[in-house]
Write a structure and sequence with these properties.
The structure holds two protein chains of two kinds. By secondary structure, chain A is mainly α. Helices cover 67% and strands 0% of the residues of chain A. Classes of the chains: A mainly alpha, B alpha+beta. At the A-B interface, helix 1, helix 2, helix 3 and helix 5 of A face strand 26, helix 22, strand 32 and helix 24 of B.
């Protein structure tokens, strides 16, 4: 993809975000554009195959390998909230509760309007807090998950 | 008692004493030979690798850069059937015979791939049958090692891996009776004497075993006593060990050349160094070249003295043929072969010593220095050679240009660069000065310099975290400001342009880097609070709680600044900067992984607002000249920094995929005419432009709304206002008041539209 095409896409995302509100008078783009809505599965076959590998590793208990694959995928698509979410899941399994919580929050920051993804992130956060003995924090996270509907 | 008998007793005694002494000496030597030979493990340096290039469809990299990377890895541009390590150009891209490599997570076998390019992007990666491959890693470039004290470098090989013709050439040339003798070779010595007497010069006459003993146990002095000890030890070695064991050790020990400060030892490393291929693949001609160098690796250096090395090789080939180890045909073919050396530039202990130093420091937290220098660990780092090369090139070129212009002062400007990714804290490049091969003062790590205005974002972030008090358009006062504190002289910060600007919008004060407004804002918020923000951004060095600290009377290294700005670039998620991904043993067993770690240090809303303000710095503030390198659509966010008397120039900023910090100044800290915008920024701009950056697109947090604002008044605008800006505000914090240009109706319409939009969004679940 050429640089120009990427700018066009970024612009398209921006315009998409302002579908109703008229775009402001021409001039420099005044603020960060809205994050594009995440795809259910990456269209990038490299990312898709790394995710498949990570799921297999996760299922088999090879957590370090699963995490490494997800980190490789994140180098390709750092804005893919699903990758962050999967990484949070792996960290939870590894007993890295603080990391699981932070990484799930990172996923939320890229989740856009994907409420199901957000709800799942909040559930992961709830589990991480629970595991750390923060019962009230866990409850608050579960409530946040409920609110995502 | 007869005299005779007495003498006899003395003789006996003397004999016994001598015999005992000799036996003792023999036992001592025997002990040394055995304990040292058996206990001897070659010290293997930790081997450091760059990140592997991962080829996949959609990767943004021009074909030329992939070719650069392949060349750097010693790939040849020609088809070589039956062996990996080459590439050729095809109509739509490259065909590559990828070498096998043992990665942290397993081995990737050799394979042939076709990579198609479309502009600056990889369009497809396919295997030999045309099947799409999701992802293929090229083997990572070695970028140096952590060496034993004498900088000995080697790659161990097993005898079974060494081609038979190499061993035969070695034996034919250095020690014909190797497989028959017992450590010394009378015929060989006789031959050496005859040759010497005939005037053919002094020849070795030492067996391989003797040579090994000499290298292994003894100092290089040439005395008769040492020669005898050597002989004796050689015999002992032969008594205890098989020919194969001795030969294998010899092949791993032998000194075969010098790469700057790095000593090339052993046939395994020599084969990689001279031919960039594993020892198994050495041809007869290549083997003969290496064997020929045994006699004098510096004298027969094929890079410096190709003709001499070629003649020596051909001599070795002739010996090999004459000893019956090669047929006439094999000999003729090998003799006709050209040298075909690896064309890679000399690298020494590392081509990127500044980055290596960062790796070394991070390794020392987890490993013993001795282990690093001897255990042969393999360390996989985050270095991106593309970014590193670009950073080195740009810094050298720009500083040279500044020196020539003499606009900024005397020649001898120095600089440093740190580049990281924007989400994981991986350091992609680090330049410690303009002479990048110099392994001395590393400015990126160790030059703590005043940061000037680079600290200001912390003031504004602290303010924007209180949306009820501060928004991007809140009016703040840039009038003269005096800070009085007991026991210290009054502090009166002046502005860069020596003027005061009265009431200005908060975003403008940051964009123009107004000192009086920023100092006033910072002291209103509380110095301690601002410094707490700095700390949360990742600056661990304790800062003195003085008002002047707010304007950057603080000394930080470029790496520390990078850590601080990394937290901003990743939306408030602080990720400790890392230079290492994985460490394995020498045979690839994983030892340790350094995983991505993030910590949410700030809520997303104020971070979003701060980033928008920092985009303003580039769009319309002190970093406007960025447009000379990157188009407005890149939406770069950044901050310039200039210190008192313009001694230091900084630029720190980020795009959609990278964060960069550039420092320019003089080592002796002299006053100059530097400013962040005129020196550090051009370096940054040129570097990022060379890397084809992604535009900066931030995820908009829930608690943020966009409102049309009249830039002059900072009040609500509508479609009727020319040049209106859409600015982000924390929910409910946008000004209610209308700008003069906005009609009452217009604003009302905007509000209805917004409501309709959010209603529609709810309806369609967008």
């Amino acid at each position: 993809m050429t640089r120009r095409m990427r700018y066009l896409l970024a612009l398209a995302a921006l315009i998409g975000g302002c579908a109703i509100v008229q775009a402001p008078a021409p001039g420099p783009i005044p603020e960060p554009a809205a994050a594009p809505a995440p795809a259910a599965r990456s269209e990038n076959i490299a990312v898709a195959s790394l995710m498949d590998g990570a799921s297999a590793d996760l299922a088999a208990g090879r957590y370090a390998n699963a995490a490494a694959s997800l980190e490789r995928a994140l180098r390709i698509e750092p804005r893919n909230p699903r990758l962050w979410q999967e990484l949070a899941r792996v960290r939870l399994k590894q007993g890295e509760y603080a990391q699981a919580e932070s990484i799930a929050a990172r996923s939320n920051s890229w989740a856009g309007d994907d409420n199901r993804l957000r709800a799942e992130n909040w559930r992961l956060i709830a589990q991480a807090r629970e595991a750390r003995g923060d019962a009230s924090g866990a409850r608050a996270a579960l409530e946040a998950a409920e609110r995502q509907r | 008692m007869s005299r005779h008998k007495k003498l006899w007793r003395y003789l006996c005694f003397a004999f016994l004493t001598v015999a005992l002494l000799a036996a003792g000496f023999a036992l001592y030597l025997d002990f040394r030979v055995r304990s040292e030979f058996e206990g001897r493990r070659f010290a293997l340096p930790a081997r450091i690798y760059a990140r592997p290039l991962e080829l996949h469809a959609g990767l943004r990299i021009p074909q030329a850069d992939v070719v650069d990377e392949l060349r750097e890895a010693g790939y040849r541009e020609e088809v070589r059937e039956g062996e990996p390590g080459w590439f050729v150009r095809s109509t739509d891209g490259l065909e590559i015979a990828v070498r096998p490599f043992v990665f942290w997570d397993g081995a990737q076998p050799a394979k042939r791939i076709r990579v198609a390019f479309d502009g600056g992007t990889v369009a497809a990666v396919r295997d030999a049958d045309g099947k799409d491959l999701p992802l293929t890693r090229l083997e990572p470039l070695p970028i140096g090692g952590i060496y034993p004290a004498n900088n000995e470098d080697r790659v161990l090989v097993r005898l079974g891996e060494v081609p038979k013709h190499l061993v035969q050439a070695l034996v034919a040339t250095e020690d014909r009776n190797f497989f028959a003798h017992h450590g010394f070779d009378l015929r060989g010595m006789a031959r050496a004497v005859v040759s010497f007497l005939r005037g053919n010069g002094l020849q070795g006459g030492s067996t391989l075993t003797q040579q090994l003993v000499k290298n292994f146990f003894l100092t290089p002095e040439r005395t008769l006593r040492r020669k005898l000890t050597e002989l004796f030890m050689a015999v002992l070695l032969e008594l205890h060990y098989s020919k194969e064991e001795i030969l294998e050790t010899y092949l791993n020990e032998i000194y075969l050349g010098q790469d700057r400060d790095r000593a090339i030892h052993g046939i395994g490393l020599a084969s990689l160094y001279y031919f960039s291929k594993p020892v198994e693949q050495l041809s007869l001609a290549e083997s003969a070249l290496l064997v020929g160098m045994v006699k004098g690796p510096v004298f027969y250096d094929p890079y410096r003295h190709p003709q001499r090395a070629l003649e020596r090789r051909n001599l070795v080939l002739r010996e090999t043929k004459d000893q019956g180890f090669a047929t006439l045909e094999q000999y003729t073919v090998a003799r006709a072969a050209k040298l075909e050396l690896n064309q890679k530039a000399a690298m020494g202990t590392s081509p990127h010593p500044a980055f290596l130093e960062l790796v070394h420091r991070q390794l020392r937290r987890d490993y013993d220095e001795a282990d690093l220098r001897s255990e042969g660990l393999r360390v996989f780092t985050t270095l991106d050679p593309r970014v590193q090369r670009a950073a080195e090139r740009v810094l050298a070129r720009k500083l040279e240009q500044f020196d020539k212009d003499k606009r900024f002062g005397a020649p001898g400007l120095e600089g440093a660069i740190v580049v990281t990714d924007d989400h994981a804290g991986e350091v992609q490049a680090l330049v410690g000065g303009r002479d990048v091969r110099y392994r001395g003062f590393n400015r990126a790590l160790d030059a703590a310099r005043p940061v000037g205005s680079l600290l200001k974002p912390a003031i504004y972030l602290t303010a924007l975290a209180e949306p009820a008090r501060y928004t991007l358009v809140t009016q703040i006062d840039d009038g003269p400001f005096v800070w009085k504190s007991r026991g210290a002289p009054d502090w009166q910060p002046a502005n860069y342009d020596k003027k005061f600007h009265g009431e200005v919008q908060l975003r403008t004060a940051l964009a123009q880097s107004y000192n009086a407004a920023s100092a006033r804002l910072g002291t209103e918020l509380g110095i301690e609070r601002v410094l707490a923000t700095v700390k949360r951004l990742g600056v661990e060095r304790p800062l003195r709680p003085y008002a002047a600290t707010l304007l950057g009377a603080v000394e930080l290294s470029p790496l520390e600044v990078a850590q601080m700005y990394q937290t901003i670039a990743s939306g408030g998620f602080r990720a400790p900067l890392r230079a290492i991904r994985e460490v394995t043993t020498q045979d690839g067993r994983p030892l340790k992984r350094y995983p991505l770690a993030v910590e949410q240090a700030f809520p997303p809303e104020p971070m979003y607002l701060l980033t928008a303000a920092m985009q303003g710095v580039v769009r319309e503030g002190t970093a406007q000249s960025m447009k000379n390198w990157l188009p407005a659509e890149s939406a770069v966010a950044g901050k310039t920094g200039t210190t008192d008397e313009q001694r230091d120039a900084w630029f720190a900023g980020f795009t959609g995929d990278r964060l960069g910090v550039v420092w320019v100044g003089y080592d002796d800290n002299r006053a100059a005419h530097l400013s962040g915008g005129s020196t550090a920024l051009p370096v940054w701009g040129e570097l990022m432009a060379a890397l084809d950056p992604e535009p900066l697109v931030l995820p908009k947090p829930d608690g943020i709304e966009s409102v049309l604002i009249d830039p002059q008044s900072g009040l609500r605008a509508d479609g009727g206002c020319a040049g209106a800006l859409e600015l982000p505000f924390a929910q409910g914090s946008a000004p209610a008041e209308r700008a003069p240009c906005a009609s009452a109706v217009g604003v009302a319409v905007e509000q209805v539209k917004e409501r309709a939009k959010s209603w529609l969004e709810r309806l369609f679940g967008r």
